Every structure is written in structure tokens, then in C-alpha cells.
Amino acid sequence: MTQKFTTIDTLKSFLREQKLAKKNWGFVPTMGALHEGHLQLVKKASEENDFVVVSIFVNPTQFNNVSDLEKYPRNIDKDIQLLETLGKQIVVFTPETKEMYPHTSILKFDFGNLENVMEGSFRAGHFNGVALVVSKLFHIVQPKKAYFGQKDLQQCRVIGCLVRDLDFDLELVICPTMRENDGLAMSSRNTRLDANQRKEAVKISQSLFEAEKKIKNKENWVDILAEIETFYKNSDLRLEYFLMADNQNLTILNSYQDQKKVAICVAAYAGEVRLIDNIVVEI
Ligand code: AMP
Asked: Which atom of ligand 1 is least distant from the CA of 31?
């Protein structure tokens, strides 16, 4: 059973009643165009809570590229149908932009080194927008637990910092990346790929698994990186970054010696569609 809310006030008053009834709820924030990766979060949240709040909101403040925002896939009716197939109690929150942002916010977050690399360095203002919307949603929904995907590893670390430093009274649950059968990480943006781009896009996860194999074979990271860069040059993809970072603080590493776990992270364009992926490797 799904219930739909579009305004903050009606959602809050519903949740107040649920609190009085001693119910607890999990929260899955999304930008819609739902796929199995999202559904996995919703399923886990419904196993661990009385019901789940799913927000569907394409958050304009986290887009640094107007065309990416305009072309972001949107299909709320299909999303709700998909959620209904789960047969769980799900509360869907689909606010309009003016509901979430009645005025322009001047608030600025600074996540220091956590946002000076990867997505933060290539998408100016991205994590400011993420932190702003996630903070607002946490205040509105006040969940016991909030569920995020490892697919957006840097986002997980930024939100971890937000929750810890601002004492949000909730538990973060990070769920593994769901992949298509050939290894491509599921993403709403995959729907924008044409047949050739889709064929090329699988090379992104292949490059991660190849790097992992080479790490396990104790190859030098600098050599691995050179091989991976050649692999991308021989593809139709345009590599933005491919790097190894500390799994927690995301400091970029040139060697995996003395590390227990490293994150290998990549961003690449297939045509004009920007895709990201990562894996965490135990050394
Ligand atoms: P998005 O709608 O892209 O903002 O994603 C909403 C949530 O789903 C975020 O926590 C994402 O990390 C998570 N997510 C997106 N794709 C995947 C995936 N393939 N596997 C696991 N989680 C995912």
C-alpha cells in the first residue's frame, strides 16, 4: 500500500500521528526513475522498520549542469507503480521544487577534504546542494534510519559527516551497489544511453574489476593506472577521473601499501551521459 504526499505540512502531520502510534519508519531519499538499486534500499528499509518513506525529488541545487538537470529522467507514475509491486507500506513524498525551496537558500556547507576530490572537484556546488536537501528532508521526515547506496560513495561519506557533526538523530545504513548482469552499476542515467553507449558503459565496471584484480596481484598502482588510462583511450568513453582513495576520508592515494581497504572510484562520459561507479577493495 502506498500513500502519497506532496506538501511538507501534510506529510509532517501524518508522521506525527505515526509517532503517537509508536511506529518507526525508515527513509530512502531518491531522485526517482527508480530501478532495482533503489528498490533494494526500500526493501531493506521495510524489513527494518514499520514502514518506509521514499522521497522522489529531482533536487535542482545539486546539479551544476543545466542540461543534466533538464534531461534527468522523470516518471513519477511509473515509480509509484514500481513501489506498489513491493506490497509494503510505503509513504511517497513528491514535493514540487517551490515546496522544497520557497526561497533561494544562501546556506553554505564546507566538507573540506571530503568534497575537494572526485565529484566535489568536478561538480562545483554539488555536495552543497546534496547536504542542503538531505538536511531539509531529514528534518521533515525525522526517520529512525536512512538508507543510501554505496554507488554514491562520496555522498555516503559527506552525509556521514553531516549526520555526525549536526547530531541528526538517525542511523545511516549503506547498501551495496546493484549491478546489471554484465556489471554496469544501475543508475537512472542509464536510460539515456543509446545502444552503443550502453555497450561501452560496461567498460566502467570492467575497469574497476580489472584494477581490483591487479591490486590483488600486487601490481604497482602507478602501473595499474597507466594501463587503465590506455583502456579508456581505446574505448568510446571519456574518462574524467579514475583514482584510488582512502575508504573513509577519501584522501587520494598513490599506493595501497599500509592500507586495509581502499576505494577505487571512477567517473566517465558515454556520449553526454556522465556515469560514476566505485568498488571497495580489501588489501
Ligand atoms: P538517486 O535517485 O540517484 O539520487 O539515488 C537515490 C539513492 O539510491 C542513493 O542513496 C543512491 O546511492 C542509491 N542508488 C542509486 N543507484 C544505486 C545502485 N545501483 N545500487 C545501490 N544503490 C543505488
From this structure: 2
126 is catalytic: no
CA–centroid distance, 225 to ligand 1, in Å, is 27
pLDDT digits (tens, 9 = 90+) for 232-268: 999 999 999 999 999 999 999 999 999 999 999 999 9
Instruction: Based on DSSP, count helices (H) and strands (E) in the chain, helices before strands.
Output: 10, 10
Question: From its phi and psi, is residue 184 left (phi > 0), alpha (psi between -120 and 50) or beta?
Answer: beta
CA of 219 to the centre of ligand 1 (A): 32
Reported as type and span, the H/E element at residue 205 is helix 195-216
Please write the tens of the pLDDT for every residue from 109-155: 999 999 999 999 999 999 999 999 999 999 999 999 999 999 999 99
Q: What is the DSSP string of 67-134?
A: HHHHHS---HHHHHHHHHTT-S-EEEE---HHHH-SS--------GGGGSSHHHHHSTTHHHHHHHHH
Q: Grid coordinates in use for 188? A: 537512472
pLDDT, tens only, 188-225: 999 999 999 999 999 999 999 999 999 999 999 999 99
Q: Indicate the SS3 state at residue 135.
A: helix
